[in-house]
Specification:
39% of the residues lie in helices and 15% in strands. The protein is of the alpha/beta class. The protein has a 5-stranded parallel beta sheet, with helices on both faces. The radius of gyration is 18 Å and the shape is globular. The N and C termini lie close together (12 Å).
Length: 215
C-alpha cells in the first residue's frame, strides 16, 4: 500500500504542507508507504492540448506525453494505491502549480469515445486539503463551497471516493505588524490556530490519511 501526498503550496512548513504531513502520518500509522511531492520544486507545464493521450498509435492512450518535472509524478499517481492533494486558495482557486498537475492528471483519463469507455479503471481513494484565510461562514458567499464540491466530485467520479478537509482563517505569517494586513483580527486568527488548527484540523488530516491507507 502506497499513499502519495501532493503539496501545491509554495510555502513548505506552513498550513497546507503541515496538514499533508499529518495525513501521511495517519497513512503510515496504518502501515502504508508514503511519499510527499512538493510541486514548487519542479519545472513543469500545464496541459498543452496536444491530444497525445488520445492517439491510437504509439501506445500513449491514457498517458500524458509531455515530458517535464510532472512526468514522474503522474507515473507515481498512476501506480499508487491512494493519494491526497493540498493547496491554499489564491484568488479563489488552487495554486497555479497544482492546477497544472490537475489538468495533466485528469485530461489524460477523460474518454472522448462515444461510449465513454473508462481509460483509468482502477478505483482508488483520494483526498483534498484546502486552506484559506477567510472564515468558513463566508465560503458560500465567495464561491468556495461550489469550488470545493467541484474538485471533490471530479476526483470522486474519476478515481473513487474522495474526502476533503478545509482549514479556514489560517495563520499566514509570523509577524502581521510587518505587513499591510490590518483587515485581519490577529488575535482571533492566533486563537483559531491554537484551538482549531492545532489540534482539530491536524487530527482530521491524520484520520483522512488512515482512511486513504484502508482503515
Amino acid at each position: 500500500m502506497k499513499v502519495v501526498a501532493i503539496n501545491g503550496s509554495p510555502r513548505k512548513g506552513w498550513n497546507t504542507h503541515m496538514l499533508l504531513e499529518k495525513a501521511l502520518e495517519g497513512a503510515k500509522s496504518a502501515g502504508a508507504e508514503v511519499e510527499m511531492v512538493n510541486l514548487y520544486d519542479l519545472n513543469s507545464k500545464g496541459c498543452i492540448g496536444c491530444l497525445g493521450c488520445k492517439r491510437k498509435d504509439g501506445g500513449s492512450v491514457g498517458k500524458c506525453v509531455l515530458k517535464d518535472g510532472l512526468t514522474p509524478v503522474l507515473e507515481s499517481l498512476a501506480e499508487c494505491d491512494a493519494f491526497i492533494l493540498g493547496s491554499p486558495i489564491y484568488i479563489g482557486e488552487v495554486t497555479g502549480e497544482l492546477r497544472k498537475l490537475i489538468e495533466r492528471l485528469t485530461f489524460q483519463y477523460i474518454s472522448y469515445d462515444k461510449d465513454r469507455t473508462p481509460i483509468f479503471s482502477k478505483k482508488i481513494r483520494t483526498g483534498f486539503v484546502f486552506t484559506t484565510n477567510c472564515p468558513e461562514a463566508m465560503y458560500e458567499t465567495v464561491g468556495y463551497t461550489v469550488k470545493f464540491d467541484g474538485y471533490k466530485n471530479l476526483f470522486g467520479g474519476m478515481f473513487g471516493e474522495c474526502k476533503t478537509l478545509t482549514a479556514s482563517q489560517t495563520w499566514q505569517i509570523d509577524d502581521y505588524d510587518k505587513y499591510r494586513m490590518s483587515a485581519f483580527d490577529v488575535e482571533a486568527v492566533r486563537k483559531r490556530r491554537e484551538e482549531v488548527f492545532f489540534p482539530q484540523d491536524c487530527q482530521n488530516a491524520f484520520e483522512i490519511g488512515k482512511w486513504l491507507a484502508g482503515e
